[in-house]
Amino acid sequence: MNSFKHLADKKYFDGTKCHRLTTQGIFVLQCGDPQGTGSGGPGYTIPDENLGALGKAGADGTVTFPAGTVAMANTSQPNTGGSQFFLVYKDTKLPPAYTPSGRSTRPASRRSRRSARPVSRAVPRTAPRRRP
Q1: Where does residue 24 rank: exposed (0-12), middle (13-18), buried (19+ CB within 10 A)?
Q2: Which of 15, 22, 24, 87 has its CA 20 to 30 A from that of 33?
């Protein structure tokens, strides 16, 4: 997670908006794209880390990302994270392919969830957008 801290220290995220709020199936707010399109990044990728932190995948190939989890988004391919991350606001089942980087100690307020415009209702299946 050194890259995430490095970008934050360089004010990379300052002034950026969260570009994706999912409200059905998975419950995440995705941020960290300076372009605001879902396809931007810092110009490099980082390796996946700590993928087993949330346990072993069940028969459906998923693990539960508990509400409050902060994790790195990727292109659905290994080692393709960059600057985008997502905040889980309700327990969500996802493949264990996203680096969990921490957990919020405060629940998301209703206001913060309402302030993001829903742009997706499900995980898009088109590349190269970064997605949880």
Answers
A1: exposed
A2: 24
